[in-house]
Amino acid sequence: MTPFDGKNQSKRMGFLLGFAFCTGLGLGPLMDVVVQVDPSIIPTAFFATTLVFVCFTLSALWAEQRSYLYLGGTLLSGLSILCFLSIVNLFVGAQFIFQVK
What we know:
- There is one protein chain.
- This protein is mainly α.
- 83% of the residues lie in helices and 0% in strands.
- The protein contains 4 helices and no strands.
- It has helices at residues 9-37, 41-62, 66-92, 95-100.
- Helix 2 packs antiparallel against helix 3 (66-92).
- The longest helix is centred in the N-terminal third of the chain and has 29 residues, at 9-37.
């Protein structure tokens, strides 16, 4: 809502920090319910989100053309998930994961 003009950077940073603080306050009760259901959901969601973010960031850094940017992030995310499932399947040995990959 506030356009950048070089002088209002601290005001904009204050708005961002305030929004992040209020969002964190709102997510607290939800995280409590999620922990009661299954505590492993939060680290799994964090790992998956980080993995997808890293894949899209690397795709943006390596893309020479804009059209490859959209394709590269999606393909790299899918490839990372398949590699992770392969490693998990070495220890678990699930038939479903074998059929998915």
